[in-house]
Design goal:
two-stranded antiparallel sheet; 93 residues
């Protein structure tokens, strides 16, 4: 169990706290809350292939090409942690 905790803390430090300086405990709590959401909903995990732990609820229709989506979808970028990370997903046009 100790190894899992150490790995989780190291990931948090490398991906978040090495780049952002929290000024108060409240700021740190908000930052950790945002990072956990990004970690579980937007960041790919190698153990899941290129998947994420909490997949999005929207399902897109299958197209013939795996690289092209219909004209009814566009890509949306949401910034996390003050622009440190970005998450991209499809939305209806």
């Amino acid at each position: 169990m100790n190894a899992l905790c150490e790995r989780g803390i190291a990931t948090l430090r490398r991906e978040c706290l090495d780049w952002v300086v929290p000024f108060s405990e409240t700021d740190l709590r908000r930052l950790l809350k945002d990072w956990v959401q990004h970690y579980n909903r937007g960041r790919p995990h190698m153990a899941l292939g290129p998947g994420i732990p909490d997949p999005p609820s929207i399902t897109l229709h299958k197209s013939q090409s795996r690289h092209r989506r219909g004209e009814s979808y566009t890509v949306r970028a949401d910034s996390n942690l003050g622009g440190l990370h970005h998450e991209y997903h499809f939305v209806a046009a």
